Amino acid sequence: MFDMSRAEERCATLIAFAQRFGADAADAVAIGDMSEGVQVRLGALEDVERSESEAAGLRVFVGQRSASIHASDLSDAALSALAERAVDMARAATEDQFAGLAPRDMLARGPFADLDLEDSSEPTPQQLRAMAQEAEDAARAVQGVTNSEGGSAGFGRSVVALATSDGFSGGYAATSHSISASVVAGTGSGMQRDYAWRQARHATDLLPPADIGRLAGERAVARLEPGRLPSKVMPVVFSPRVSNGLLGHLVGAMSGASIARRSSFLLDRLDDTLFDSSIVILDDPHRLRGLRSRPFDGEGLPTAARTLVEGGKITGWLADSASARQLGILPTGHAVRGAGGGPGISVSNVHLAAGTASPDDLMSDVSDGVYVTELFGHGVNGVTGDYSRGASGFRIVDGALAGPVAEFTIAGNLLDMFAAMIPANDLEMHRGMNAPTVRIDGMTIAGD
Q1: pTM for this model (two decimals)
Q2: Full strand arrangement of the beta sheet holding 306-310
Q3: Distance between CA atoms of residues 239 and 216, nearest Å
Q4: Is 336 exposed, middle or buried (0-12, 13-18, 19+ CB in 10 A)?
Q5: Fewer CB within 10 Å, N side or C side of the chain?
Q6: What is the pLDDT of residues 89-145, one digit of tens each?
Q7: CB-based burial of residue 153 (10 Å sphere; 0-12 exposed, 13-18 middle, 19+ buried)?
Q8: Angle, CA 192 vertex, CA 390 and CA 148 arms, to 5°
Q9: How far is CA 131 from CA 150, 201, 229, in A?
Q10: Is residue 233 left, alpha or beta, with left meaning phi > 0 and alpha meaning psi from -120 to 50?
Q11: In the beta sheet, which residues pair with residue 160?
Q12: Amino acid 443: pLDDT
């Protein structure tokens, strides 16, 4: 895998080739990745794998025509041929009045902040195996666990560099450590599976492998002998394992591309009060060691912390340069870029601010409800906001958890759900998108 200087040099070379072949403007990205993982099952080594990759992507503009192309051969000859082909493709493309690089006067300028995304240490395969084994052993030691799908540990390192013909050049490196365990409890038709995992930029920020394994085992055992729910309207309490998905639906609907296509349930609701006034949702790309932290966006624009929801309202759309031109606004620094294709739109580290009540307090007045720990299916309509997901979890009776339940569906509309959201005080910041326990009253349950 190449280092930062090599990645930045390959980007500059691509830009130079593109201009030589007639591009009016261009941007290039170079990405290097290395990953290594070890998986054990039932105490035996099951899999060891390591992969390394290098790729570069080029986007060129000839007037208002553009084309994107990428390759994994980064030799001078290959990049020259790549650039020539991209310019030929652009000349044959249709014109797009919104095409173009990010505004020159808005480009980020270095030096960039050190976000502490790179761990200098790298575990050996033997150390990864030991961590995976420790996690699985702890999970299998939980009484009631009868089988295992395995424990795993992994490490990755990546380098990203971006350059534009308007003078931007920058890059950053990051690492990733992960541990997981997945086990089965019970026997026969009554078996239940669950898991636990953690990921962090630095190894010292991970939970101990035994804690992760123990959590996986306890979760699996807690799901044994699930009951069924009646079909009715009731309060739903989303555990932190799934509540962050609500934030994902929100930011997807705030995408400038969706708004420009008129395919978002938030269309024409920019000035509407959608949440309780106490709800605050923030996006922080500069969080130290954050899983989605980045010093600049996929078009070379600066990134900055932003409040997405405040005073009950969303604070505006999330836009790359193309969607910003369509909407008549400025780009917001939310462009993301891979080696293939042009920029997309995404947030960084997002979290729903914690409330004041504990999860127990949040459930204390629920006479009959459900605490959801797992969601599945893709029944969310981004245009209407209609929401329907399969779920499992625990029934709430008279303010307390009263046993596992499964095979039911929760349904509502995201606008109604946002308006009814009540967050608890148990926010933890170990994911890219984080939310505490969240209560939403008035959801429809489809069960027996």
Answers
A1: 0.95
A2: 313-314, 306-310, 281-283, 350-352, 433-434
A3: 15
A4: middle
A5: C
A6: 999 999 999 999 999 999 999 899 999 999 999 999 999 999 999 999 999 999 999
A7: buried
A8: 125
A9: 12, 16, 39
A10: beta
A11: 31, 172
A12: 98
Look at residues 146, 143, 162, 18 and name the one whose alpha carbon lies nearest to residue 90: 18
Report d(CA 351, CA 342) in Å as an integer.
Answer: 27
Tokens of 108: 């980020």
Domains of the chain: 4-221 (3.30.2290.10), 226-448 (no CATH)
pLDDT in tens, 278-329: 999 999 999 999 999 999 999 999 999 999 999 999 999 999 999 999 999 9
For the record, the structure tokens of 339 come out as 């080696």
What tokens appear for 229 in the block? 């729910």
CB burial of 226-258 (b: ≥16 within 10 Å; e: otherwise) equals beebeeeebbbbbbbbbbbebbebbbbbbbbbb
pLDDT at residue 193 tops 80: yes
For residue 106, the Cα-to-chain-centroid distance in whole angstroms is 26
Q: What is the CA radius of gyration of the chain?
A: 24
Classify residue 300 as left (phi > 0), alpha (psi -120 to 50) or beta: left
Q: State yes or no: pLDDT of 76 exceeds 80.
A: yes
H-helix or E-strand containing 88? helix 76-92
- The rounded distance, in Å, linking the Cα atoms of 351 and 435 is 6
Residue 343 in tokens? 């920029």
Which token pair is 59?
């986007």
- Return the pLDDT at 52: 96
* Distance separating alpha carbons of residues 65 and 71, to the nearest angstrom: 21
Report the C-alpha gap between 401 and 390 in whole angstroms: 20
Strands 65-71 and 44-62: antiparallel
The confidence score (pLDDT) of residue 173 equals: 97
Cross-strand pairs, 28 = 58, 163
Question: What is the token pair recorded at 38?
Answer: 């070890």
Query: Which alpha helices (H) appear in 122-239, and where do they start and end?
Result: 125-140, 209-222
Peptide bond just before 111 cis, omega within 30 deg: yes
* Contact indicator for 186, 192 with CB cutoff of 8 Å: yes
Model confidence over 367-382: pLDDT tens digits?
999 999 999 988 899 9
